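Researcher: Can you fold this with LWBT4IAB in place?
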Amino acid sequence: MLYLVHMIVRIPDTVAAERADALKADEKAMAQRLQREGKWRHLWRVAGEYANYSVFDVAGNDELHQLLSALPLFPFMQISVTPLAQHPSAIAPN
Ligand SMILES: O=C(O)CC1=CCC(=O)O1
């Protein structure tokens, strides 16, 4: 199943800069592993915001939740999820 996921990142000032940098490096490593595995199909920065729109291709709600909640920045993100279905006018299956 495909899911459009909106992630807004807010790391509070109480998190030390070194800790924040480590979390971001771990987040990048996990995101790139999931992209290589084909589960994180798109990752787009929202221009001008510390936020992204992503498309995940996973078995269902439970796998998506497991992946999102394992992200290093998960405690500092506001996440919204939109399940995607095929559009009948799309010229190619997604
Ligand atoms: O910077 C972000 O939008 C949060 C994030 C998701 C994957 C990644 O590497 O950073």
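Model: Folded with LWBT4IAB in place. The first helix runs from residue 17 to 36.
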